[in-house]
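Exercise 3.2. Students should predict the tertiary structure of the chain below and write it as structure tokens, then compare their answer with the key that follows.

Predict this chain's 3D structure.
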Amino acid sequence: DYANLRATLKGRSLGVPLERMLVNLGTVPAEEFTGPLEQLPRFLSQVAVSLASDEEHAVTVEEIDATVEHAEFADLIETARASKSGALKELAGLMVDAANTRTAIRARRRGRSASELAATLFPGGSFGLDTIESAYTLSVAELVDAIAAMPGLGGVDVASLADPSTLDVVLDNLIARFLRSARAMQFGPEPVIAYVMAREAEVIAVRTLLIGRLAGLDREVLRSRLRELYV
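Answer key:
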């Protein structure tokens, strides 16, 4: 649902046709995204309304990504809470931690202000937003060290976290390892969640390989950018 909303908002913003961009795998039929977005279910329509542009401000692709991602994480956290599944709560928290880590490190490298960072962080992770904001006053290297030491990230490799080319990979691998252990659960939603996310990881791997080959990257560089699979 959120992927279709993101695709629709971006397509309309850029004037790109929506054919082949929507998928019929959500709870809302894909064709409903081609009509007025205000008529979508509330959890989607309120996101679209919040991004309505006016004559003075045209919505950017970055704003669309950030707004939809915030709504998606809020939905994930609420779903985890309502499910009463400890594993789903832990997974949701880990995904938020990974997103906040990625956001903070990249913002610090770009010299973004603390107020700009605060507007882009997600609540619901294992470490408080004030903890990240306090560490944000440090140098990039010290910020990476401080985040890597936070219990929620499970002793992630500092060097990989500090390297822009491997930042995404090392964070995604944390989630992969969690889901690999979740697969072993005999009862509960964990094996189903792990299976769905494993298929997503396979798609990401194929996309990475295709884009890398088109860009002319050698095999070793491509191999370094592949995430761990859950199976």
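Discussion points: The two ends are 26 Å apart (CA to CA). The mean pLDDT is 85.
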